[in-house]
Amino acid sequence: KSFLSHTAYLSCFFPNTQKTDIKDLRVFWQKGTDEVVHEVYYGQEKHDNLSPKYINRTKMDMDKWTLQLLNAGIVDEGQYTCIIQHRVKGSPKVIHRSECLLHIIANYSQPEIALLHTGERMAAHQPNKYLNLSCSSSGGYPEPKQMTWLISRENVTRGLTGHTDVSQDAVTKLYNVTSKLNIPVPTNTLTNISCVLHLGEQLGSLVSVTLGI
After folding, report:
1. Taking the CA atoms of the chain, what radius of gyration do you get in angstroms?
2. Lowest-pLDDT range, 9-13, 30-34, 66-70, 195-199?
3. Which residue in 106, 104, 143, 139 sits closest to 1, CA to CA?
4. Bigger pLDDT: 12 vs 17
5. In Å, how far from its chain's centre is CA 18?
6. Taken in order 34, 40, 41, 44, is the CA torsion positive or negative?
7. Distance between CA atoms of residues 147 and 124, nearest Å
8. What does pTM read for this prediction?
9. Domains of the chain, first to last
10. Residue 60: how many CB atoms within 10 A of its CB?
11. Is the dihedral of CA 44, 47, 49, 51 positive or negative?
12. Among candidates 73, 144, 66, which has minimal Cα distance to 104?
């Protein structure tokens, strides 16, 4: 995993138990089946075959056998393969091959609750007011799992799911998420309302500032 616009570190997982000299090795990184990301040709960096989008964006740490991919973007997500060839009597032979899957993460903004308006749901002679709430978070990646609401009063908390809308920016590929909820206007008791953006098991969740009514 790597944060958007940061440096991603992709490991070759090459033990080099034979302590082979780098001058006898060709190290070759590719993305998918056809994009050359980086090449170290018998000790020298070689740029002839690189895919244009990786030029001046990669560095190989030969001590750790790790490729640094600078300014990682969402388009860089995917599977990378590290292939190491050893030159034996003139002809190169593959002695190591490993794969690495890159996921990009961009932090969502803290969810924010907005009070849209108080709507009248019934006839005027029988007023029954509703709160029309929205909660929004933006600029994140990957796509969130869901957004839920927590309504707490008198030490009892219940979870609700409103109508959630998720959109993706065509250029940046980042996601924006908004959830809308209508609830009856609380009476007599303090009610605390918050919303939670669920990002998945490993990324956890984000909680809004609580709205007290």
Report:
1. 26
2. 30-34
3. 104
4. 12
5. 38
6. positive
7. 33
8. 0.81
9. 2-105 (2.60.40.10), 109-212 (2.60.40.10)
10. 20
11. positive
12. 73
